[in-house]
Write a structure and sequence with these properties.
With 619 residues, the protein is α+β, with helices and mostly antiparallel strands. Helices cover 22% and strands 21% of the residues. Strands 8, 9, 22, 23, 24, 25 and 30 form a seven-stranded antiparallel sheet that branches.
């Protein structure tokens, strides 16, 4: 532009300057007077000072560089002149323009938003426990009483099942692990696991067996168990020491650090094998895997819940896969495809736990958990949508000891539980008096009844707090988990009278029988004594010859009333024939006539019960 000429309306680039500061700085406006605190969340406008360049005409449009680097347009007011400064508002930055998303990208974005929303819902659900406790209740009123544990929504009673039995079989020394397993199967059962023969809780201290009174058998004795790869005769986990106290309960791998060589599959005589095996014979509720088709819309938590509702728990990987990554289901073959199933390994409260999902479809990853296969946890374990690689099956291990019975109470012995106060600290323990098994809930939420016998302080998970819940009460184990029936924690304690009513009745019956036996023995002794007295009296009377002219014998002197009564009944006395001449008989007859009563007649007849020739006293 020529000097002195006025700049026409247009756009120019100018420098900015904040009041009292160097150029380029900016300030934030403050809320206007009268604005309350509820406006503080409103986005504040940003302002800056602009100096109008020389030659700029009023109403001209200037291009101004904002502090964040953006170029904005500003119109000069009509009353402003070149060289003056004016305050302008800097608008908020507009969101960056993005390319139009493809249909697949939009679908992925929607899926991601759904996953995030599902995770948020899961977190909130975990923070708010279902049927929260309203506070603890005293347990003193429960102690010594018998209860049925009932869940009204499920119409089910908690009960125990004692069909599982450990059977000891003498097989000698000429056997292999496979032949032992086959023998158990032929007997209608299976080979025992180590945990069913050895008390694994005693490891690290003084190990004990669950057979032979807890003591070692002595010597070097290895027995086969079902642990490890059940198709490998020489698997070190499949042979357990029961003889040597120093190695008691250890499997061969723990004791020697390796498998057992070739002798596990040899059928010739081996002095250190056997001579026994233990088989578990289980009934219809015995321990077994159940395959449930659950589809694809499930989470790891919902799978655990479903297993609990079936009276069991989710299976561990070791119950589905051998240590050599061979399946123990589906005849050992991979199912094909990309199939992940949930297991109990790892943290049961984490749906995305990598060790909690196992591959059973892909032969190359068969038996591996997600962490082994992909070195990371999964991101889809807690989603209830339907990723095609989840399921469609889950495997539940049905507990052989705990079950449920449905319908009205039918006097089941296995569903009767007695409350004991041995737990202390306002806690109670429940034991079935018939099986002497104690209820417990593990930290995994699994209801068990593995401990039996008398109470001891090592039983921790068997201790329960009584809590008030909506529509009933709840029992919370010291493991932190609730006793549930069919997945429900609300339980009704149905009183069944005295916990030892049967024992009391049996004791009363036995006591009455003993008293009757004692009374009968006393009666027999008294009858024998009376018979001896009468015989002696007759012998004396017979042996004595009465002098000639001697007056007749008379009854001993009695009280007036007795004498009168005796004079009247003497002729028809029941003792005239057998003992009428006896002084004792006369006294008895006279006494009965004076004190005639049904009770006295019964007592006298009891005394002469075994003398058929003596007439009965009657009233």
């Amino acid at each position: 532009l020529a000097p002195g000429k006025r700049r026409s309306a247009g756009t120019v680039t100018v420098r900015t300057r904040s009041p009292g500061s160097v150029a380029g700085q900016h300030t934030h406006s403050q809320p206007s007077p009268g604005q309350g605190q509820h406006h503080t969340t409103k986005k504040m406008s940003t302002t800056m000072m602009v100096q109008i360049p020389a030659g700029t005409a009023p109403n001209a449009v200037l291009q101004v560089r904002a502090p964040d680097g953006r170029t904005i347009k500003v119109r000069v007011p009509r009353n402003m002149r070149p060289g003056q400064q004016m305050r302008i508002a800097v608008p908020a930055a507009a969101p960056k323009a993005t390319k139009p998303a493809s249909e697949a990208q939009e679908r992925d974005a929607r899926r991601q938003r759904r996953e995030e929303a599902a995770r948020d819902r899961a977190v909130k659900a975990a923070q708010v426990p279902a049927n929260e406790s309203r506070g603890r209740l005293p347990v003193a009123g429960l102690v010594g009483r018998s209860f049925g544990l009932y869940q009204k929504d499920q119409k089910a009673w908690l009960a125990l099942d004692e069909t599982k039995r450990l059977v000891k079989i003498d097989v000698g020394h000429r056997f292999s692990r496979k032949s032992a397993k086959k023998l158990c199967e032929e007997r209608g059962g299976r080979l025992a696991y180590r945990r069913e023969i050895v008390d694994e809780k005693t490891f690290g201290a003084t190990p004990k067996l669950l057979v032979n009174g807890g003591k070692a058998f002595g010597g070097n004795k290895w027995i086969p168990v079902l642990d490890g790869d059940r198709d490998n005769d020489n698997d070190g986990m499949g042979w357990v020491q029961i003889g040597d106290p120093k190695r008691l309960g250890k499997n061969y791998r723990e004791a020697r650090g390796r498998d057992c060589g070739a002798w596990g599959g040899q059928s010739h005589h081996m002095g250190h094998k056997g001579p026994w095996i233990w088989c578990v014979k289980a009934g219809p509720h015995g321990p077994f895997l159940v395959q449930i088709n659950i589809g694809h819309k499930f989470t790891r938590a919902s799978a655990q819940q479903l297993c609990r509702e079936h009276g069991g728990r989710l299976a561990y990987r070791r119950e589905l896969v051998t240590t050599t990554y061979r399946l123990l289901v589906n005849d050992g073959k991979a199912f094909g495809g990309d199939i992940w199933i949930p297991v109990m390994d790892g943290d049961p409260n984490k749906d995305n736990e990598g060790v909690g999902w196992v591959q059973i479809g892909d032969p190359e990853r068969l038996g591996k958990n997600h962490r082994e296969a992909h070195s990371a946890d999964c991101t889809w374990g807690g989603l209830s949508q339907a990723p095609h690689w989840k399921g469609p099956w889950i495997y539940c291990m049905i507990d052989e000891a705990v079950m449920t019975k449905t319908g009205n109470w039918a006097g089941w012995d296995t569903a009767r539980f007695v409350a004991f106060d041995d737990a202390g600290d306002n806690r109670v323990a429940f034991r079935n008096p018939g099986t002497k098994r104690w209820l417990r809930v593990t930290p995994d939420g699994e209801t068990q009844a593995s401990a039996r016998g008398d109470w001891n302080n090592s039983l921790k998970w068997e201790q329960f707090e009584l809590h008030e819940l909506a529509d009933g009460v709840g029992l919370r184990s010291t493991s932190g988990r609730w006793l549930t029936i069919g997945g429900k924690r609300t339980i009704e304690l149905e009183a069944l009278g005295a916990w030892n009513a049967d024992e009391i009745a049996a004791a009363e019956k036995k006591k009455l029988a003993e008293e009757m036996a004692k009374a009968a023995e006393a009666d027999r002794a008294e009858a024998e004594r009376r018979a001896k007295e009468l015989a002696a009296e007759r012998e004396r009377m017979t042996a004595a010859e009465a002098p000639e002219g001697e007056p007749e014998a008379v009854a001993p002197e009695l009280p007036a009333a007795a004498s009168d009564e005796f004079a009247r009944i003497d002729c028809d006395s029941p003792r005239v024939v057998l003992g009428g001449e006896s002084e004792l008989s006369a006294r008895i007859d006279a006494l009965f006539r004076v004190r005639r009563s049904p009770a006295l007649a019964a007592q006298l007849n009891k005394i002469y019960e075994y003398h058929d020739g003596i007439p009965r006293y009657t009233t």
